[in-house]
Design brief:
Number of strands: 23
Distance between the termini: 85 Å
Structural class: alpha+beta
Helix content: 25-40%
Strand content: 25-35%
Number of helices: 11
Shape: globular
Strand order of the largest sheet: 12-11-22-19-14-15
Radius of gyration: 28 Å
């Protein structure tokens, strides 16, 4: 549905409401008008955008006469990021502890944490069933006292919705991505401890975990609402066949990647924005990322880094066959459609945060938009400090050798500001000759 159709639909709906309020009792609209308004309403109902954006609320009136057309679909719940602080309306009782797998260095912190949560905080602790199968945990005698008190779940089999009040991650950035994967709707607040290799998304240190967890449980913490992408794979002929099989519907925290897979040919991918063809991507593929994912695969492919509180979607080509194809940033409310071009020599492959990799055939399409369910990541300090500290520590952003001050350049202390290098070299030659 294009913008003109949307404006027509809104105008017709407003006109219909006005006529209904002022019509004479006993009269009814003409059948033709009923049909037009019905079609307009149908189009308007299918035109859905996200209603949750993290930015200051914009004013909707411009000067004495201008304003944004009012309708119920444009009402947004918008917050100032600085006001996003964690509040518990009742004390949290259940906590999910996610531990990095295949890393023996995380075992002792994991045992210390779950023992403290159970014995000191009297909380119900959930862990993945595979964690308890690790024989290396049995070497800790303190773990045996709490092992039977742990609640377990299995990924893909047990539903954790409405069971978890709070999440603690022990490991690297992958643990936070895994937490996002487990909750495909509302996500509990996530506190991530840095015990991995990179730690861009894990701002907390484990040294004094008791004090830090207590601060969070008391509601004394800032939040970063990390937006996610809602991705739906539509298969060719699904509408006509009306199959009962549910399409792939996933929420991703970092990015969705469409690439050429094992084929030696370049990808040819059509990119649509709100139903309008924007461009055809010819290259190795395309990255559609959140602001959180802008510092992951996207920045390695040449994209800019976006603060996670900015409401946006980043589109980054992978090794494009055109030097002028630069990454672009689009508003968070739009819907992207990605499909294999008709004249493409090969199919494409899509993956979601590195998972669920599957093939896109000719006629298939991928729909991407911002989800209304963000990941509430708890800050160690605040949104700004945490992000820039991560840039400096993990990515060494703008790290360089310090330029020497003029007072430190002893060979130039005798020269004036008007001296040039040529005059200095000439003076040195004269001094040598003498």
């Amino acid at each position: 549905m294009n913008e003109s159709d949307l404006q027509l639909a809104r105008a017709l709906v407003a006109d219909e409401k006005h006529n209904s309020a002022n019509s004479t009792p006993g009269t009814s609209p003409t059948p033709l008008k009923k049909t037009v308004v019905g079609k307009a309403m149908e189009k308007l109902n299918t035109f859905r955008r996200t209603r949750s954006l993290n930015a200051p609320s914009p004013i909707q009136q411009f000067g004495p006469c201008g304003r944004i057309m009012k309708n119920s679909a444009m009402v947004m719940t918008i917050q100032d990021p600085a006001s996003q602080r964690l509040t518990w309306y009742k004390p949290p009782l259940t906590v999910l502890v996610i531990k990095k797998v295949r890393d023996a260095s995380v075992h002792l912190p994991f045992v210390q944490l779950v023992q403290w949560l159970i014995e000191e905080k009297r909380m119900l602790v959930f862990v993945e069933a595979a964690v308890l199968d690790d024989p290396l945990l049995d070497q800790y005698s303190s773990f045996a006292t709490v092992k039977d008190k742990l609640m377990t779940f299995r990924d893909g089999k047990d539903d954790l919705t409405d069971k978890i009040d709070f999440i603690i991650c022990l490991g690297g950035d992958g643990t936070l991505l895994y937490a996002s994967h487990l909750f495909q709707q509302s996500v509990p607040p996530v506190m991530a401890f840095h015990l991995g290799s990179l730690g861009f998304l894990t701002p907390f240190r484990f040294d004094n975990f008791q004090e830090q967890v207590n601060n969070v449980l008391e509601g004394n913490a800032a939040l970063t609402l990390r937006s996610r992408l809602r991705c739906i794979v539509m298969r060719k002929g699904d509408d006509e066949k009306k199959t009962t099989k549910q399409p792939t519907n996933l929420l991703v925290l970092n990015e969705v990647v469409v690439d050429r897979g094992p084929s030696p040919y370049l990808s040819n991918i059509d990119l649509f924005l709100d139903g309008k063809l924007i461009t055809s991507v010819q290259g190795d593929g395309l990255i559609v990322s959140t602001p959180t994912g802008s510092t992951a695969y996207a920045v390695a492919a040449g994209a800019s880094m976006i603060h996670p509180s900015v409401p946006a979607i980043m589109v980054t080509p992978i090794c494009p066959h055109s030097l002028s194809f630069r990454p672009i940033v689009v508003p968070a409310g739009v819907e992207l459609k990605i499909s294999v071009s008709r004249d493409s020599r090969n199919t494409s492959w899509v993956s979601f945060d590195g998972r669920n990799r599957q093939e896109l055939l000719h006629g298939d399409s991928l729909r991407v938009t911002t989800s209304i369910y963000p990941v509430p990541s708890i800050c160690a300090q605040d949104q700004i400090s945490d992000w820039f500290d991560s840039l400096a520590e993990c990515l060494h952003w703008n790290v360089r050798k310090r330029q020497k001050h003029l007072d430190e350049l002893t060979d130039l202390t005798h020269s004036s500001s008007n001296d040039t290098l040529d005059s200095l070299e000439h003076a040195e030659l004269i001094e040598k000759d003498s």
